[in-house]
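Question thread 4412

I'm putting together a teaching handout and wanted feedback from people who do this every day. The idea is simple: show students a protein as raw sequence, then show them the structure tokens that encode its fold, then repeat with a second protein so they can compare. Below is the first pair exactly as I plan to print it.
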Amino acid sequence: MAAVTTKRSITYIRAVLTLLLFLLAAYNFPTMAEDMRFYIYIYLVVLLASNVVLIMTGDEKYEGTRLHYIIFIVDIIFLSLGTYWLADMDFNFFIIMFLTIFMCALSRSMALSIVIALVANVIYLYARYATGGGADILIQEKVLLNIPFLFVVALHSSFLAEKTADEEYQKNKLARSQKDLADRVKAIDSQMEYSAKFASDVYDAMPQGVIVLDSHGVVVAFNTAAEAVFNTKRNKVINILYREVGILGDVTGVITELIQIKSAIKGREIPAMIDNDPKKLKVSAAFVMGRERVPEGVLCTVEQQDTGKGEK
């Protein structure tokens, strides 16, 4: 949408500039030298063709200010040649034109461009008068023909400056948003890391062995008591599908049964052979339910029972 608005504004500004140059050419045509007319024809055809090319240019090309800078420079060249050939472009006008560009660039506001153009025209007329233009300067045709071009220059340069300022503002706003987002992500990551560490500490504080699976059946928690029961380190179990963890033995069957019957299993006693050491385990398993009462994982606790070997 912004690109379409930019294209429309540039098209309007160039239309005014083109119309002024065509009117100026038509006004000066009767008094123009024969050899000069050919160059003016070529000049006007190129000017008109440039408008057609810009109108046919896709809207996406008007994103940003790069194309507008090119158009602005090309239009300054068109305007300088036009006023040199068709009006009375003296050194005063040339200096005032660039003074107008400078002031409009500082203002960065199209609303102020008309005021700036008026001030520039007053300065131009005074400069012409002070350099010997005479008291009748306000009725000199070639001097008056230069005045509209300062308004076009003011509009063009103010529009470019305003768009540049807006683009810079949007970039800074995006940079701030990206920084805020990065800070939020960092804070969330830190909170998630803390929560995971806290949950791990809670599991390790429990006397029973704790095995937690995610919704895909992958082991995501294996506490210190479980390490002692199965005589294995958690890093050999974490992130592995529970059915592929051979050390779990018949505990795997209890979890599979839970998944099939969809009902919690409490205090199931099963025998286990761990590192050639027979053990009796008491296993409980239940679903971890989400907010919408949908299973999001499995919680399994394992307690090692006394086998009675030490009894007399």
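The second pair follows. I'd like the answer to focus on this one:
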Amino acid sequence: MSSMRLPFVLCTLAIAASSIALTGCDSKAADSKEAPVKAAATQTPGGGQSRAEVLAHVKMMSSLGEKLFMDPSLSGSGKLACALCHSPQHAFGPPNALSVQLGGSDIHRPGSRAVPSLKYLQSVPQFVEHFHDSDDEGDESVDAGPTGGLTWDGRVDHGADQARIPLLSSFEMGSTLAKVTAAVKAAPYADEFKKAFGANVFNDDKKAFEQTPQKFFPYTSKFDAFLAGRAKLNDAQPRLELFNDEKKGNCASCYISNRAKDGSPPQFSDFGLIAIGVPRNRNLPINKDRSSTISARAVPSAPT
């Protein structure tokens, strides 16, 4: 499990907050002002932390995060852990081929959308209706339209807000702020939680719930090694060229494959929110009673 521990700490800080961990994807998590890692670390006389202290704190957060992520008591039913839908063995995505996962008080209520992976969400920008590239990254005159935000539709910008959605949804984990706080307070790891986030963290349900979640970003693929000069693509090189060629595949116009100007790894996304007109899945209960959009040509004339 040691190879998984970093993701657990990065996500759980979140959970920690309220014991939520489900998401782990705050678009501002990299901001040191929001990183809870500093909460329990011992300060040196100069106000900083030694390498040993930082590593010890990360180890503590990792251990706590794994426990929170795997804990079904955070759900209203007491049976559904974050990891059941976001499986560490399946890129923190669903462990099965179901269109949607099952939850609710009886673990039989189907959700309304596919469960996404929790990986590589740290670079998602905050939602804007009209997105323009910065001076450093592109042409500011181009309006890329609705862009950014967490969840499939960009409805929230911060991990703590995103985590509320599945934790409090009646057909997902079906819990409440109070239940989550009570579950963590009664858990075997409660003392670890207080050590990480303060002795009074349980005094305020909202505060306990709102610790900043962080992210999962291993960047360990062969392509990442290629970008770092540690591997060759060999037979895949022509396919990458086709992917990037503006006159051929041009996939990279949306699925950006080059490093950013600051050197950060590519995310293979421009984070745009685009309506592509895919029909609703009528096999899902939530869609069975919804009428299809009627063409304006079929609307009868109103009486005069």
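Top answer:
Good format. For the second protein you could add a caption like this: The mean pLDDT is 77. The chain has ten helices and two strands.
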